[in-house]
Design a protein that fits this description.
By secondary structure, the chain is mainly alpha-helical. It contains 18 helices and twelve strands. β1 and β2 (about 80-85) form a beta hairpin.
């Protein structure tokens, strides 16, 4: 009895001493004048509720005005440095060894801890190279016709009907992403593919719910859907391994991951491949669909820009024999459309409004150019939209003005696909899909919005409130 009491007192003393040391260290850290000014928000939750799924500018601008373009906050359970300057953004993007991607537990549980943006930083370059190998121009140039087939199928099915643009564009880009990632050519009518779709939708809807793992709760249902989907993916991986052993090479992300060996000569584990596949699917799908939605909306509101796009695309159409498919070389001629479709649209509503990566500091360091101290264990959020909409870098930034990109932006002021070691491995595929979509949309169809502009929602990507309902009608050529 006395021994147990003594042990309890000893453990209590150790815990009290540890807490005291922790508090002392935290006070000394927070009192360091090199840490940017800012607000810690409420106890425990910090400023997470204010940060939430809201317009990033509404959160950032009052704080920038009060504390400057680099300020501290407390988000998602961690002290954080918020960055809205090109100099600091370039530093963060260029220092892979100092940062490790750190996402909320809900996201890493649903997608997996080993997806590309969150994997071991020493393993990241190798895995990124493997994934990117099937998404580079040398491979994509042979897939233009297949992408055309998906896009024409979607446009034809929407002809003359009112559609919810955001929803339908997501379905279209999901089909394209699933082909390039898994090698599945048609998601309709197969029970296996439906399992994959159900898993994706369940995981997407669960990222911002309470993680209560009990029957009847949304989180529980999503984890069950993930288990069923992963069982299917394991069977698909086994099938691809057998094909690879027989010398069959498949130019898909799954094929590349199954066929590669790491620096030790070892093949990737099934669970590692699954995390990488799901992370690639999430990165390749919603982002492209969201961008297309904003492009269509911007063009419908700026008829001069629309006419210039139509003129460029009609010139390409007329240079080809009737019925001839687009080629890779055709898409390289779409320079004005590239400025409109990708650059101008993404500067207004960057799909990833806040952090292109959620860096997690591995050791304390001082940024020499600014003298800012970033303590170990703090997150650094890159406020991409704030940097893109900075009037010092882009005069009249809210204007839909493609001509601003006739001169390349200054380094560090524009990075819709991230930058440096963090650059999106699927950026070339996204650009290609968007350009092919805009070619067939603008040369074959007219469209009109079916509801007034009612603002923007962030769930978490920015989209027109209401999903942007439109009606397409085929042109008489």
């Amino acid at each position: 009895m006395e021994a147990s009491i003594l042990l309890s007192l000893l453990l209590g003393a150790v815990l009290l001493l540890s807490l005291s040391v922790f508090v002392h260290r935290q006070k000394s850290i927070f009192g360091d004048p090199r840490i940017p000014k800012g607000s810690d928000g409420w106890p425990l939750v910090g400023e997470t509720l204010a940060f939430g799924n809201v317009d990033p500018m509404k959160f950032a601008l009052p704080r920038i005005k009060k504390f400057g373009r680099v300020f501290k906050s407390h988000l998602l359970g961690t002290p954080s440095i918020m960055v809205a300057t090109p100099e600091m953004a370039k530093f963060v993007y260029g220092e892979r060894n100092l940062f490790r991607a750190s996402y909320p537990r809900t996201i890493t549980t649903l997608i997996g801890k080993g997806f590309l943006s969150s994997c071991d930083p020493h393993r990241h370059p190798f895995l990124k190279k493997v994934i990117q190998s099937v998404l580079l121009p040398d491979t994509l140039r042979h897939e233009v016709g297949r992408i055309e087939g998906y896009i024409n199928g979607g446009l034809d099915s929407w002809d003359g009907k009112p559609i919810l643009a955001a929803k339908e564009f997501k379905e279209l880009t999901l089909n394209i992403a699933v082909y390039f990632i898994f090698g599945l050519t048609d998601l309709r009518g197969t029970a296996e593919a439906q399992v994959l779709i159900d898993m994706y939708r369940a995981l997407s809807s669960a990222m911002y719910v309470m993680p209560i793992n009990l029957p009847g709760f949304h989180w529980y249902k999503s984890l069950q859907a993930r288990k069923v989907g992963c069982d299917y993916l394991k069977r698909l991986i086994l099938e691809r391994r057998r094909e690879a052993d027989q010398g069959v090479k498949q130019n898909t992300v799954l094929g590349a991951l199954v066929g590669c060996t790491d620096e030790k000569g070892e093949k990737l584990r099934d669970d590692e491949i699954i995390d990488l596949l799901l992370g690639t699917l999430f990165g390749a799908h919603d982002t492209t669909a969201t961008t297309i939605t904003w492009i269509v909306k911007h063009l419908s509101e700026h008829h001069d820009v629309l006419q210039a796009v139509v003129a460029e695309q009609e010139e390409i159409r007329k240079s080809k024999a009737p019925g001839d498919p687009l080629t890779w070389e055709d898409t390289r001629r779409m320079q004005y459309s590239l400025q409109v479709d990708i650059l101008a649209s993404l500067i207004l509503w960057n799909v990833v409004s806040w952090l292109v990566a959620g860096p997690f500091v591995l050791c304390p360091f001082v940024v020499k150019a600014s003298g800012v101290l970033i303590p170990k264990g703090w997150r650094v959020f890159l406020m991409t939209t704030c940097i893109h909409l900075d009037a010092e870098n882009f005069p009249n930034p809210l204007a839909f003005d493609p001509s601003r990109f006739q001169v390349p932006p200054k380094p560090g002021t524009y990075f819709p696909f991230a930058s440096g070691t963090h650059v999106c491995p699927g950026s070339e595929l996204a650009k290609l899909v968007i350009l092919v979509f805009m070619h067939h949309l603008t040369t074959k169809f007219r469209w009109q919005s079916l509801q007034p502009d009612t603002g923007t929602v962030f769930k978490p990507f920015p989209l027109p409130n209401g999903g942007y309902p439109i009606k397409l009608e085929r042109k008489v050529l």
